[in-house]
Amino acid sequence: MTPIQEEYLISLREDFHALGSYLQEISSAVIKEQISAYPIYLVHNEPAISLGRLIIDSGKSRTNWSFSASIIEELLRREIIDFDRLDEFKSIYKDPHHYACVLMLTKEMTDFVFIPYEGQIEDESSEDSEESPIHRGDGGIHFENF
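Given the sequence above, the corresponding structure tokens read:
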């Protein structure tokens, strides 16, 4: 992990600690209302992006990051995720009731990160193998450059 990735993760974890239950509610609603089985949050520092729907503005909420809500279908339509890699993406996507799928959008990096919601404890018996496309970060956070 690069120093900038580590810095971004620390600030994202701070925000997530405060916002995790709110984001979990949104994910549950997206699934329950059958909007998508794959909710995805976009985190960014830009005032506005043309992806998803802005739900938390860092300028107004005193958070490190702005958050936009999206779904896999939008990312496929906008060619953020290659349709040829959809099955691969779905295979690494974690249970949205227990993890948030976050796409970090910065000038330095664009990575998918899977963050466990508050109180969700990872099963240590499911350690990722070296062949896995998921790379374990600190505290159960997973990176994936897709």
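The two ends are 16 Å apart (CA to CA). Try to locate this feature in the token string yourself.
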